[in-house]
Specification:
single chain; alpha+beta; three-stranded antiparallel sheet; two-stranded antiparallel ribbon; 5 strands; elongated; Surf2; 30S ribosomal protein S6
Amino acid sequence: MKLQLKCTLTGHEIPFDVQKLQDYIKSPKFLRSWRIYKIMEKYGEYFDDIGDNKFGCKVTRRIITKDPDALERHINGKKFKRDLEKSKVLINY
């Protein structure tokens, strides 16, 4: 029986081998999932997972693809920042 490692981000199973693990963590699929994970770690409370490839923003009420670049553009955008400030003011009342 071979030992397998299972990635909690992607669900990918990797043979228990250091070289294969290093290759996997450099793969585009893992790097994309890792970037999304880091963004959601910081801003996850503002997004709902609404499908295979989409997030719903609770702040701006927009749908954003599960693409790290699209998420960063949305988070750094004027509308998100403005609406986030408005929602923080409403919460403080």
